[in-house]
Design goal:
Blueprint lengths: L3 E3 L11 E3 H18 L2 E2 H12 L7 H14 L3 E3 L7 E4 L4
Antiparallel strand pairs: 1-2, 3-5, 4-5
Helix pairs in contact: 1-2, 1-3, 2-3
Length: 96
C-alpha cells in the first residue's frame, strides 16, 4: 500500500485531498526548487517551471498537483501569496 498524505488548504473551511506521498514530495521539491532559483513567480510561471522539471518523469496532471501542493504549502506557511498581486504571485517564506 502506498504511503499517503492529507494535504491542507489555506482556507480552514475547505478540505485538502489525500494523495500519494511520493507524488506530493516530487511536486513539493519542484515548487521549492523553482522558487529558490527564480524568486517570486506568478502562479502561471510556477506551473510552467514545475512542468518543465517533471515532464516525462511524472504521470498524472502536473497542473492539478501543482495547485494542490501549492495550497498545502501555503497552509503550512512554507510559501506565501504576495498581497494584492494580480496575477497571483507566490514566494518562499524564510527557509523551506
Amino acid at each position: 500500500m502506498n504511503d499517503r498524505i492529507l494535504t491542507r488548504h489555506p482556507d480552514p473551511a475547505k478540505r485538502g485531498v489525500n494523495i500519494e506521498r511520493q507524488r506530493y514530495d516530487t511536486v513539493r521539491a519542484a515548487i521549492i526548487e523553482a522558487l529558490r532559483e527564480r524568486g517570486e513567480l506568478t502562479f502561471s510561471q510556477l506551473s510552467r517551471a514545475v512542468e518543465t522539471r517533471l515532464t516525462g518523469r511524472f504521470d498524472g496532471s502536473i497542473q492539478w498537483y501543482v495547485t494542490t501542493v501549492k495550497l498545502d504549502l501555503e497552509a503550512r506557511r512554507l510559501i506565501r501569496r504576495v498581497p494584492a498581486s494580480r496575477p497571483q504571485r507566490v514566494s518562499l517564506r524564510g527557509k523551506a
